[in-house]
Amino acid sequence: MASPQRPEFHGSSGGGVSHSEGQRPGHPPAGNRVRFLVTLLIVVILLGAFFYWIAFGWEGTGGYWWHPQATPTQSSASRPITGTGLAAMNATDRRPYIGQSFQLSNVPIQRKIKNQMFWIGTNSQSPILVVLNSNQNPAQFNPLSTGNTVDVTGKVMKAPPTPDAASQWSLNDPDLAQLEKEGVYIQATQMYRAPR
């Protein structure tokens, strides 16, 4: 006579199948949920940083939504450089212009040192250093880079001695040598991106 089979019991208590501690039936283990949430958080942070860079930029890059980049040298080729500063810009010896006002429109940036300092001039000219005074927010010059054209207003100033320029402006050796050679710089009261 066959003995009756005992039915398996799948209740939540008793000798049924036990689930790992802390895990609910139908849910992944807690460790997998934590890994997923951490990965999701990292992805959200990276995407947020990328979109912030596109929108506003930092350190002279990005900012393509609110700060469109000018096409390098194209506008300077189509629009001539004008202004009272042309005489000083074209002079071999710029020292006689010390103390005079300086205004140039549509002058290209040869090289950006930092947001407050630029070498300006065409590639055929010896550059002149522009130092912005504190009346303009340096952050507005983040989008400017080599080849962009600007309008500059200021005054021709005597270049400080090399040790002073190195300590005040943190210039590197090639910049210090160029500044000493030029003997002057422009203390800018206003500087704007030139209209295209």
Number of helices: 5
The whole-number mean of residue pLDDT values reads 78
Strand order of the largest sheet: 1-2-3-5-4
Rg is: 32 Å
Distance between the termini: 102 Å
Shape: elongated
- What letter string, H or E per element, gives the SSE order? HHHEEEEHHE
Fraction in beta strands? 15-25%
Query: How much helix is in the residues?
Result: 25-40%
Indicate the CATH topology of the largest domain.
OB fold (Dihydrolipoamide Acetyltransferase, E2P)
Specify the CATH architecture of the largest domain.
Answer: Beta Barrel
Q: How many domain units?
A: 2
CATH superfamily of the largest domain: Nucleic acid-binding proteins
The unreliable regions are: 12-20, 66-77
Most strands sheet = 5 strands, mixed, barrel
Specify the CATH class of the largest domain: Mainly Beta
Q: Total strand count, please?
A: 5
Structural class: alpha+beta
Summarize the structure.
The chain is of the alpha+beta class and 196 residues long. Helix content is 28%, strand content 22%.
What does this structure look like?
The chain contains 5 helices and 5 strands; from the N terminus they run αααββββααβ. It has 196 residues and is α+β, with helices and mostly antiparallel strands. A hairpin with a 2-residue loop joins β1 and β2. A 5-stranded mixed barrel has the order 1-2-3-5-4. Residues 12-20 and 66-77 have low confidence and may be disordered. The chain has helices at 30-55, 74-78, 86-90, 162-169, 173-182, and strands at residues 101-114, 117-120, 128-132, 149-158, 184-193.
